[in-house]
Specification:
The protein is mostly helical and 224 residues long. The protein has helices spanning 3-26, 34-43, 55-73, 79-95, 106-121, 125-136, 157-177, 182-200, 208-212, and strands at residues 102-105, 140-143. Strands 1-2 form a two-stranded parallel sheet. The relative contact order is 0.10. Residues 148-154 and 207-224 have low confidence and may be disordered. GO terms for molecular function: sequence-specific DNA binding.
Length: 224
């Protein structure tokens, strides 16, 4: 890895840690609001990550920062830091230009589902909604081991079944917590896709990619 690229990684990884630390120290333990995370995001000018680097650099960098978010999310740290990890994954995924996927192993998926159960028990609907949006937008790649992210065609049928069952369980749990059914979700997704199709044909409307490239002061607010 070139020294210049390594220094870029170190810089933004440090910013990620500082961002989540600041969020954890300033947010209310009752709400852990995304608004609080947004405020800290602006304080460190994190949006500059999307305009300081080339597409080639961003692809590798975003993958590294996804790992930072996952490390916080799956850590034994206080809930605020774990929620901060989820928020980091959310803003990076919807802010990037490269559309990298967030890679999860089977064990990480199990941990994530346990985390969502904890959020549900605490009635933390905002955080559940943000994950649900990631899930609906197919932000995740799943595999039984990290090595299989490169070539998932070698994934065994047994592993695929386990992952599929866990995802179905997670999906049903999320829907039930909001009083919805699978059929209602499918209908909603069809309507959303139709809306996006119609919107793209109307002059003056930006598509999702151009929105994600925005760099004004409302940058993070557009995610909500």
């Amino acid at each position: 890895m070139p020294d210049s690229l390594h220094s870029v990684y170190v810089k933004w990884i440090h910013y990620c840690h500082q961002l989540i630390k600041n969020f954890s120290n300033t947010t209310s333990n009752d709400s852990l609001s995304f608004r609080d995370f947004e405020s800290q995001w602006k304080c460190v000018n994190f949006k500059l990550i999307f305009c300081e680097h080339s597409i080639e650099e961003l692809s590798a960098l975003v993958s590294e920062l996804f790992n930072v978010g996952k490390n916080f999310l799956f850590s034994q740290q206080p809930l605020a830091s774990r929620v901060g990890g989820l928020y980091l994954l959310y803003v990076l995924y919807f802010g990037q230009l490269t559309r990298n996927k967030i890679c999860l192993t089977l064990n990480e998926l199990k941990e994530l589902i346990a985390f969502l159960d904890e959020l549900n028990k605490r009635n933390m609907s905002e955080q559940q909604f943000l994950f649900y949006k990631l899930f609906l937008k197919k932000a995740f790649d799943f595999s039984s081991t990290p090595n299989q992210f490169v070539s998932q065609k070698h994934q065994s049928e047994e592993d695929a079944d386990i992952i599929g069952n866990l995802l179905d369980s997670c999906k049903c749990g999320l829907l039930q917590s909001h009083g919805l059914s699978i059929d209602e979700l499918d209908n909603l997704e069809k309507k959303l896709n139709k809306y996006q199709e119609i919107k793209s044909q109307i002059p003056g409307f930006c598509d999702s990619k151009s929105q994600s490239a925005a760099t004004n002061d409302l940058f993070v607010s557009e995610f909500q």
